[in-house]
Write a structure and sequence with these properties.
two-stranded antiparallel ribbon; 8 helices; 2 strands; DNA-binding; Aminotransferase class I/II-fold pyridoxal phosphate-dependent enzyme
Amino acid sequence: MLTYTFENRGKKSYYQYLYEQMKEDILAGKLAAGTKLPSKRSFAKHLNLSVMTIENAYGQLLVEGYITSVEKKGYYVADITGQVQIPPKEPYQIPEKTDAKGESGAEKTSAAGAGNADDRSTGGKGNAAGDDVRGQQTDPVEKEKGSEEPFADFASNQVSSRHFPLSTWSKLMRRVLADQGTEILKTGSHQGLYELREAIARHLYRFRGMAVEPEQIVIGAGTEYLYQLLIQLLGRNRIYGIENPGYQKLAQVYDR
């Protein structure tokens, strides 16, 4: 049976450490896609842990898509080949730029510093051409034209075309069109797609212990719209608290 030791878990909880170890094995291919995982009870007995610990670890792996659950059959390792994997972090190093003379940014900065020292001692006469030495320094973190793309793009108004799972998206779209047919063209509920609200309700009950009906869930097109609904429900004669610093547009919603 699958075995893990906990000598190196440090201050981490048992479930967190087990989750991380299993996740690493899945990413490394040690646990291949389709592998059946031990039942929660037998795994807990084998590792001398509580069933709740195993359930929490499995639950986290399930939420993040590393394993799947088949009713009355158990848990299986998911196929993650199409998912984007974040590479391990490497310490950031400021790149050394060289100018046409072959001088690096560090060398130019040192030279500029020496020039400034001469200026101070001679009342500014050390810079014969009268140029601003600071303007000659090269910003070491400035992005040059033609350089490679940044590691991470945090723009919130676009999707990475390089990492977007286009084939998976196309396959799911074809499946939905085949299953739903013309039903998908009908006007949906003002609360959002019922099937999605139903799935959210199941998720909340299973992983958060919240007994929520689909009728109690509202799905809106964006945060601002949903906050406007909250104001309509609760009224403007109340005091609302938001984060500061935070999303400024939300503050504007409450100020209207």
